[in-house]
Amino acid sequence: MSTATVSGICPECETDLTVPPVVTGETFACPECMLTLRVEGVEAGQLQLSMVEVQLRDWGQ
Ligand SMILES: [Zn+2]
């Protein structure tokens, strides 16, 4: 009936991603480029993904 996974495409490396159902706002790492992706929503079984800028701490002067 319903699919157990959803799919999307990494906006960075364009790898096809198939992941278990995720919640909007959840983040996961692309297995290819290791970029952190955030789920903006799911549309017709396709993940809408955006890149998350991971800020490295830079407290130095
Ligand atoms: Zn990627």
Automatic annotation (TrEMBL):
Name recorded for this polypeptide: Alpha-aminoadipate carrier protein LysW
Top-rank taxon: Bacteria
